[in-house]
Amino acid sequence: MKRPNILFILTDDQGAWAMRCAGNTDIYTPNLDRLAKQGTRFDNFFCASPVCSPARASILTGRIPSQHGVHDWIRCGSLDRDALGDLKDHPYFANEDKPVRYLDGMTAYTDLLAQNGYRCALSGKWHLGDSMNPQHGFTDWFTIGRGGCLYMQPDVIEDGKLKIEDRYITDLITEHALEDLEKYAASEEPFYVSVHYTAPHDPWDADQHPKEFTEMYRDCQCTATPDEPLHPNRIPTAPGGTGEERKRLLRGYYAAVSAMDAGVGQLLDRLEELGIAEDTLVIFTADNGMNMGHHGIWGKGNGTFPFNLFDTAVKVPFIARWQGKIPAGRVTESMCSHYDIIQTLKELLDLEGELPEGLPGKSFAPVLTGAADTDNHVVILDEYGSSRMIRNREWKYIHRYPYGPNELYHLSEDPGEKENLIGCPEYEEIRCELFDRLQKWYAEYADIAVDGTREAVTGLGQMRRPGLYSGGKPVYAETAKYQK
Fold this sequence. Notes:
By secondary structure, the protein is α/β, with parallel strands linked by helices. The chain has helices at residues 30-38, 52-61, 65-68, 109-115, 169-185, 211-214, 243-273, 311-314, 341-348, 365-369, 428-445, and strands at 5-11, 40-46, 119-124, 138-144, 155-158, 161-164, 191-196, 280-286, 291-292, 298-299, 318-321, 330-337, 380-384, 387-391, 395-400, 407-410, 462-463, 475-476. The longest helix has 31 residues, at 243-273.
């Protein structure tokens, strides 16, 4: 029997809160809401690291950052600058030198899919090195030249050539994914199409998004998210503001989400038109969460220094639809993580082939297909450089090596993470139990050669170039533009 097709949609910097079906009354996401009604939505799904490249590497490989060695957004290694011709001296590519494949030698779930007869296509952001060349089972490859890009003048790679387009990148990503669906629909082989939107990453200026979407929010008063004073640890290069500036930024963010949502609608419609909707597993998620004024922070984990690991930064949307297999209209409270995806797809699709030993994840296929909510993990762990988090339903503990500051939150009493209980004698036993479990977990799974607590991760970008590293150990830049 033919395995199901897969449409995997990944957004960039979309918090779990940024959908109407998740309770946000300011935002318009009719197609994500439609997908949630037809499938199962998770309320407690987590990224492995609250920043782009490490999170994406963990989604693909099932490894935590302290196993795959990608600890920050990748600042270089996407392109061979000497091969760019007339674009060599374009300011877009000033940080580029030679391409690096950051996941070389690691098994991604797309490798497993290709080995099981899937035709794999990427349309959108890669940001894991060597953007010019397809990797890890992909044969069709339309991507971004660097990590991020402007919405209206994106640098893209198509048919192995780099060019700068004069069109809206969200539309370009959608159109190439639609072409992939058309091409694969009649094939006897199952397909996997990854649609990696750059939305809703900044910029959020009105001139970066189509007028129909910016006008949608022109009068939005932005009451669905907290209006809080700026966080004292926010980094100076982060966007942010209060009053009217806060509303301007949120309106731009919402416009980016709604434009992306329209693209999702086109993809879902095309599956219906091609008669393959029932035979296609659709997954929607984001690489990491996002603070948009939450806690007074504008950004993900690197919106502050030291890094923050608030739920708004580490929780991501996750919706799965497979008609007849996954219950429709269900919302699950089960706690699961991106590092579980590789095992989940292997079990759900009955894929042949072995996974590497020592992966921390666990299949949540029974959560997807079962009638009852059952926690996939008793605890969830997360990391960004030397900052690590352990979280269960009642408590969250954040430990920053080597000197802190550390944080402890009683989530069942304080879901907004407002009162840091660190240092309170009555909770010291709880803190010690959580810290002990965190240390044992990382001692079991972290690779000492790429352990994030031993690296100078600043949130300003990771560089790993030939001649500047050995043994897989990354080298970090001292300065870079905020969260590209």
